[in-house]
Specification:
The protein is α/β, with parallel strands linked by helices. It contains 15 helices and 15 strands. Helix 1 (46-66) packs antiparallel against helix 8, helix 5 packs parallel to helix 6 (155-162) and helix 9 runs parallel beside helix 14 (353-359).
């Protein structure tokens, strides 16, 4: 790891708070020590830094737990995506628009994190666990993004990133030697809250020891994905449920009052992710001037369907040839091919409906804290679908 520039501050003013009318706004260290990051470029705002500080902790924990370069794409204090380095197959290279690029492990991790839910990741804040190389910066250069935090930058990578957004792209350098204080504080309406920082160490040994279903066969890939999903939930606004496959999140349901709504929301995102790989969607005959963002949006409209006649005419104007929405029958048939998905929940499942929903998205492996009055009913549902379910005993609420 490259040495970190020691130009850290202990306080500075922000552009504004959560909204432009919330001025003045500032951040500062409670004990007067240096902040855990340095500003290398741009002027970060209140939400930018909330995203950055959560993103930084998430990717560091992923890298430590799995020993792989890690990345996350944050929006509004929850990850839109998170991933570790697992090589991309040709189909995902096409879907993620990186067919002809030489990809480093860190670039691969970010491409997976960004590609999971591109609509949510539009204008993201990026978190990376390792020094940013040229390959990663070249990909980020093309993305609509507000900023990045990483422990270091190659000189050529930093030069590219500083050119984004007319030179205003926010670039933060995290301090890997920073020691987080044991106590956290928050003020709401003049009331100060304090709590012990969530230092729970999530890894295979702490998470994956108590298998409660008849099927007890866990693959190495499933173990990796369950750890990935659970660490991701640790930094996701609760309630939250997350689906993972092949080293990346494919659906995150965050901030819902009902847990089954989390499961459904994350499941719909997983459906969309997988349907983007459907040949009909990949082979839409776009006109040459149509850009990558418009192509992504158009493909998702093709998947969602239900466009009004004016919307459909506008959509069809993007193509040189004939283009049609996917039929419901096509969707159902393609989604039967989604298999081996891992699911994590930040708190127990109170009813079996969550398992019923998960079964529709190829979920094979589930980890949840357990402790519901209906645990036996939920276990029985998992047994019906041949799933492997584990009770971790670890609740991961984040607010």
């Amino acid at each position: 790891m490259a040495s970190v520039q020691k130009n850290y501050l202990h306080q500075f003013d922000l552009k504004y708070g959560s909204n432009p009318h919330q001025k003045p706004a500032a951040i500062y260290s409670l004990n007067g020590d240096d902040l855990p990051f340095a500003v290398l470029n741009g002027q970060p705002g209140y939400i930018n830094l909330l995203d950055a500080l959560n993103a930084c902790q998430l990717v560091v924990e992923l890298d430590e737990a799995l020993g792989l370069p890690a990345a996350t794409s944050f929006k509004h204090v929850s990850p839109a995506g998170a991933a570790v380095n697992v090589p991309l197959d040709d189909t995902l290279r096409e879907v993620y628009a990186c067919q002809n690029q030489e990809l480093t492990p860190l670039a691969t991790a970010y491409i997976r994190a960004r590609g999971a839910d591109p609509l949510s990741s539009f204008g993201d804040f990026i978190g990376l666990s390792r020094k940013v190389d040229l390959s990663t910066a070249e990909f980020i250069r093309k993305m609509v993004s507000d900023g990045i935090i990483a422990p270091g930058y190659d000189e050529d990578a930093l030069k590219i990133l500083k050119e984004k957004k007319g030179g205003k792209y926010i670039i933060l350098q995290s301090d890997p030697e920073f020691i987080y204080p044991e106590l956290e504080f928050r003020e709401v309406a003049g009331v100060v809250f304090s709590q012990l920082r969530n230092t729970i160490n999530i890894n295979e040994n702490s998470l994956l020891t108590d298998v409660v279903t008849k099927n007890k066969t866990l693959t190495a890939a499933a173990c990796r994905d369950l750890v990935l999903a659970s660490i991701t939930l640790k930094y996701t606004q609760s309630n939250s449920v997350a689906y993972a496959l092949d080293g990346q999140m494919i659906g995150i349901g965050a901030g819902q009052q009902s847990r089954v709504d989390c499961t459904k929301l994350a499941g719909r995102k997983a459906d969309t992710w997988f349907l983007r790989q459907y040949p009909h969607v990949r082979n839409l005959p776009f006109r040459e001037p149509v850009g990558s963002v418009e192509r992504t949006n158009a493909r998702i409209l093709c998947i969602e369907g239900g466009m009004t006649p004016p919307e459909l005419r506008s959509w069809k104007s993007l193509f040189d040839g004939s283009a049609e929405e996917i039929s419901m029958a096509e969707k159902k048939e393609w989604l039967t091919k989604l298999k081996g998905v891992s699911l994590s929940s930040d708190a127990f499942f109170p009813f079996r409906d969550n398992i019923d929903q998960a079964s529709k998205r190829g979920v094979k492996y589930v980890v949840q804290p357990g402790g519901s009055n209906r645990d036996e009913e939920v276990i029985s549902a998992a047994d019906e679908y041949g799933m492997v379910m584990l009770f971790s005993g670890i609740r991961l609420f984040h607010h």
